[in-house]
Design a protein that fits this description.
Strand content: 25-35%
Helix content: 25-40%
Radius of gyration: 14 Å
Number of helices: 4
Low-confidence stretches: none
Largest sheet: 4 strands, antiparallel
Shape: globular
Strand order of the largest sheet: 1-2-3-4
Length: 94
């Protein structure tokens, strides 16, 4: 399990709520990580492509860094497109 997600789950959930991001999408996004970084990604799978496993180009959607015991979040131009929260009708929350 990814230590940053386990240890800082509440803080990540709070960040999502404050920034209109879907907790579900954030916790289930493809990712690359180590002990101090969590990089969330999105890729458009094509037939025969394996995403992160074969270096299919992926868009970074959110970067989370652990610095001095606190999380620092960096959004990208892809953050809300792929991780944005939706309302009960399925519309993107502004």
């Amino acid at each position: 399990m990814i230590k940053i997600i386990v240890k800082y789950k509440k803080e990540i959930e709070e960040y999502c709520a404050e920034n209109n991001l879907s907790v579900e999408k954030v916790f289930h996004a493809p990712r690359a990580y180590n002990s101090t970084r969590l990089i969330l990604q999105h890729y458009d799978p094509e037939k025969g492509k394996m995403g992160l496993l074969d270096e299919t180009p992926a868009a970074v959607t959110l970067a989370i860094f652990l610095e001095n015991g606190k999380l620092r979040f960096e959004q990208t131009e892809h953050t809300h497109k792929y991780l944005g929260a939706v309302d009960k009708t399925g519309r993107q929350v502004a």
